[in-house]
Amino acid sequence: MTGKQPFEAVVTQHGATVLRVCRAVLGPADADDAWSETFLSAMKAYPDLPADANVEAWLVTIAHRKAIDVTRAAARRAIPVAETPDTVAAGAADGPASGLDSDLADAVAGLPTKQKQAVAYHYLAGLPYADVADIVGGSADAARRAAADGIATLRRTYSSAAATKGEPDGSQ
Amino acid sequence: MEANDLARDLARAFPDTPGDLRRLHDRLAAAAERDGILDVAYRTVDSPVGPLLLAATDAGLVRVAYASEGHDTVLQALADRISPRILDAPALLDGPARELDEYFAGRRRRFDLPLDWRLSAGFRRAVLSHLPEIEYGHTASYAAIANLAGHPKAVRAAATACATNPLPVVVPCHRVIYSDGRIGRYLGGPDAKRILLDLEAAA
């Protein structure tokens, strides 16, 4: 008796969060593929997952690796010569939502990779910085700083976008 | 703007989209089946005896469960006894769903489905394997079933076998009643047993 719940329950409980994370890190175009690869790979390994494991952190860890694969493949397709390891492929964010939500999604897409990952894993997946650090490498403090820098940039760009799209007189 | 507000806006910027999740879920089920890692597929079907859970392995139908058993409890038991690699994958149970539909419509008298007997063993399994010999619309006594299974005196054990049938309706334990005519216990409750017997008597 393992007591491990059916994988269907894992998909039900964590599917939406993992999709959000994939969209934030990769943009909407590649998020579906990353989500699919994440859950297929997770399902393969699920019987061997320790019963007391943090399932959400485990899934985000897998999603992180799959996102790197997808980003590398996209970079190879887009730019055959130059290596651009720490930036997103341009045009990754087609904007899943509309209006200000779309502006914020665009602003996230424009963040440097480390900041984007830290923001997604901490603010969207709700993982503590220690877990974020385990996933992206480096210390918990470094993860906290990356997330703070990302949030500061988002606050700046998102607020200015909100201001220009706000009142017609644009006073803010 | 506060960081907390921004966190809330972030969640909104990457919204929950049930339609997308449903599509991705179905894509996952298809890929898992293709890769041979979907160990148990399940779906539920409506029926005159309430919603029935159907579960199958690659060997065949492994479990039929009444709502009174608690479908979540049954799925957890399947995870514990067979594998936790379980998904809601209706397409993989089209065959059993169709045959049950035909049965409840009075258009099918015998199920023609591959069965996975792994949830039943020993004498219980021997008893259950003889149940399809009871013809549609007929009944047999627990004593007669014990006899068929080769242990005429094991009447109580035969009754227990029927009460723990992992494949009710399809393996017709509802056709086994007391020799004095009382219909006896049933996994899905006595009402369900009566409905099935009446259905078969009318068809």
Explain briefly what this protein structure is.
Chain A is mostly helical.
What would CATH call the architecture of the largest domain in chain B? 2-Layer Sandwich
- Count the DSSP helices of chain B: 8
Biggest sheet of chain B, in brief?
A: 4 strands, mixed
Gyration radius of chain A, in Å: 17 Å
Helix content range of the residues of chain B, please?
40-55%
**Structural class of the secondary elements of chain B?**
alpha/beta
String of helices and strands of chain B: HHEEEHEHHEHHEH
Distance between the termini of chain B: 71 Å
Descriptive overview:
The complex is a heterodimer of chains A (172) and B (203). By secondary structure, chain A is mainly alpha-helical. Chain A has one domain (7-165). Helix content of chain A is 69%, strand content 0%. In chain A, α5 (113-124) packs antiparallel against α6 (129-136), α5 crosses α7 and α6 (129-136) packs across α7. Chain A is globular and about 50 Å long. Mean pLDDT of chain A is 84; it is low at 82-98 and 166-172. Chain B is of the alpha/beta class. Chain B has 2 domains: 3-104, 2-Layer Sandwich (Double Stranded RNA Binding Domain); 122-202, Arc Repressor Mutant, subunit A. In chain B, the strands form 2 sheets. A 4-stranded mixed beta sheet of chain B has the order 3-2-1-4, with helices on one face. In chain B, α5 crosses α7 (155-163). The model of chain B has no long low-confidence stretch (mean pLDDT 94). The A-B interface holds A 1-8, 11, 15-16, 19-20, 23-24, 32, 35-36, 39-40, 43-44, 46-47, 96-97, 100-102, 104-105, 108, 119, 123-124, 151, 154-155, 158-159 and B 1, 3, 6-7, 9-17, 20-21, 24-25, 27-28, 31-32, 35, 37-38, 40, 42, 75-76, 78-80, 83-88.
